[in-house]
Amino acid sequence: LINHNGKSKEMKNKQNQCHDEKHNGNNGTTKENSPEQSKKGKGCDDEHPYPVLYYSRQNDCLRTELKHLFDLNLFPSTFDFAQECFGYGSPPDAINLWIGDERAVSSMHKDHYENLFYVLSGEKVFTLCPPADAPFLYEGEFDSGAFSRCHRYDECEDNEVENKEEGWGIAPDVDDDDEEEDNTKVESGKSEATKIDRSFVKARWILPDVDNILISSHHDCKQDAVRCDDIMKVNYYRKNYPLLRHTHPIRISVKEGEMLYLPSLWFHRVTQTKETVGINYWYDMRFDSSHWCYFNFMQQLQSCPVGGESISGGHDDDGIVH
Questions:
Q1: How far is CA 125 from CA 5, 102, 109, 250, 279, in A?
Q2: Which of 65, 66, 238, 291 falls between 20 and 30 A from 77, CA-CA?
Q3: What DSSP line would sit under 73-136, residue for residue?
Q4: Which helix H or strand E contains 228, and what residues bound it?
Q5: Cβ contacts of residue 245 below 8 Å, gap of 6+?
Q6: Strands 276-284 and 113-121, how do they pair?
Q7: DSSP 8-state class, residue 285
Q8: Residue 41: CA count within 13 A, CB half-sphere
Q9: Per-residue pLDDT for the chain (322 aa), expressed as one digit of tens each?
């Protein structure tokens, strides 16, 4: 894929052209209208002089906008065993391309698809939780917004505005059916604008990063500082999100040439250990199965506290929700 779609380093050289693109903040995923986008709202710094970019169209891009690449027959169009096992006997609903490095991290979420994910180069890291963990993951509704590149300004002594540096801004998503309107009235020859309250788009979001309750296995006896930092993260999350102790997270590394079957409705957080290229096949899940009924039952338990514990979020002593 790298040979046919351009060298990896060439993609990095083009990254600085994307400063003005908007990035969707909903569940850490990207909007479809811009292929090279950031999954997280991180800007440039000295260590990484270019934005965190991630190609993730999620719109069957390999068979649509990249059809010329798909027609080279580098990838199978389907898998017979998958069509048989998943029940419908149909080809995949979508085949997607994913390109990113270790700085791009998705929030934990679930998909209504049976997912086959193949790594062409690099290494993907999946943190998984089974559907039965739904009541304990602190999933709730939050305001959705969009990240966009912007400039920060400083006011000089002569009251001139100086462009200081680039940064990130966040604009909330507003319900299209309830847009802001201005009502003007005249008082003493002046116009006064009155703003109507707006409704913001809500998104389902899992508040804590469940990966932080897993102690990293990437250390040895000489790296006590790394181990200490991991333990501190685990203790913090256990204190502020006590329901996480009922979850069953596992971390799985998928290396070049390997494929992962990710069942529908399994929660997953995804990142990479280096620049990674992967493709995935989404097969439609069965909504007439007992698994779908069971999952909906487990989601209903979210409103039922366990042992008197609330799932509204963890709190520090200062009462701030994290």
A1: 24, 9, 14, 10, 14
A2: 291
A3: T-S-S--HHHHHHTSS----SEEEEEEE-TT--PPPB--SEEEEEEEEESEEEEEEE-GGGGGG
A4: helix 224-240
A5: 238
A6: antiparallel
A7: P
A8: 18
A9: 333 333 333 333 333 333 333 333 333 333 333 333 333 334 455 555 677 889 988 899 999 999 999 999 999 999 999 999 997 889 999 999 999 999 999 999 999 999 999 999 999 999 999 999 999 999 988 888 877 777 655 555 555 555 556 677 788 888 776 544 444 444 444 444 444 456 888 888 898 999 988 875 444 444 556 577 778 888 888 899 999 999 999 999 999 999 999 999 999 999 999 999 999 999 999 998 888 999 999 988 875 554 545 454 444 333 333 3
Coil, strand, or helix at residue 197? coil
Quote the tokens at residue 94: 């979508």
Beta-bridged to residue 315, according to DSSP, are 321
Q: CA 131, 41, 33, 198 torsion: positive or negative?
A: positive
Q: Which two tokens stand for residue 276?
A: 């990674």
Beta strands, E only, the chain: 22-24, 36-37, 54-56, 94-100, 113-121, 123-129, 139-143, 145-155, 161-172, 182-187, 190-195, 202-206, 250-255, 259-262, 267-272, 276-284
Lookup: tokens for 104:
């791009």
